[in-house]
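REQUEST
  id: r-88c1
  op: predict_structure
  target: PEFG-CTERM sorting domain-containing protein
  payload:
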Amino acid sequence: MHNSRIFCIIITFTLAIMVFHAAEAVDTISLSTAKNLYYDGDHVVVFGSVNTIFEDMPITIQIYFGSNLISIAQPEVATDGTFVASFYATGTKWKDEGTYTVRAQYTPTQIAEISFEFFSQVVDSSAAAFPVDIPYSGTFPVGYTMRGGEVNNIIMNQERYSILIETTMISNGNLILKLPRESFDAQKSNGADNTFIILISKENNEPEDFVQVEYEEIATSPDYRTIRIPLEEDDKWIEVIGTYVIPEFGSIVIIILVVAVSSAIIISKSRFSVLYN
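RESPONSE
  id: r-88c1
  status: 200
  body:
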């Protein structure tokens, strides 16, 4: 009789644990932001879904910087369990740059957290200017603002019509480049602005290590193009490929260049390819 009671207690305890874990698995929240990086004036879009739905019960979404509550919203949960909220990232509470935490809570047991990076908006200014060497012709300045790391070096590759930037990234961030048109640009045959090609590597400066990423052009003028490149922790190399880089070739140099390229074609493929093979 005593053994039977012990057996019943064990069975009951086991079933309780199984029910608890089953409920825990069901009562979950999936949580995401539209981007990992936001700037002053952006709308931080938070969305997700819940597995267990309670009628007429909104979900609470809070945004924190450290222990400071920045904003809060209570969007409705749709009949399919999805929800979405938008936060306007501007004002006195959005004064700190760094990592912000999004916390969503639906019930005491349904809680989820994610994070994103937030930085001040920089449009047409530069924290520093890096002198890029021009072979046999001095230098030209590339203005830059770095968030989340440091710029170690910027070199020019005339053969690829590109500039190569070496960085040390200790967190997610971004690199803003103010590119002087007279020295480096990307243009179509009719003179209109063309898109740059942005390649990033976390490893070595080898073609197979690079991947193409998107960027944002945040300012243009007759003299400059300002672009913003989102970066991740441990990104090491950024290559910006255009269609033009100084110095322009003179007539004698062009003749030498044509001969060199012709010889290269006979031996191997041309080295003046913009894209990696």
